[in-house]
Amino acid sequence: MKIETKIAHFSSPLYLESGRILEPYEIAYETYGELNADKSNVILICHALSGSHHAAGTYEGERKAGWWDGLIGDGKTIDTSRYFVICTNVISSCFGSTGPMSPNYPSEDPYRLKFPVVTIKDMTRAQMQLLSSLGIYHLRAIVGGSMGGMQALQFAVDYPNLADDIISLAATYATRPWTIGFNKVAVEAIRRDPRFKHGNYSKGDFEEEGLDGLAIGRIAGHISYLSPDSMDEKFGRNYVNNDGLFELFGRYEVERYMEYNTNNFSRIFDPLSYLYIVKAINTFNLSRGYDSLHDAISRIKASVHLISFSSDYLFFPSEMEHIAKMMERNGQKHTYIEVESTYGHDAFLVELDKFKDTIKEVLKN
Question: Which of 16, 60, 281, 330 has a CA positioned 20 to 30 A from the CA of residue 119?
Answer without folding.
Answer: 330
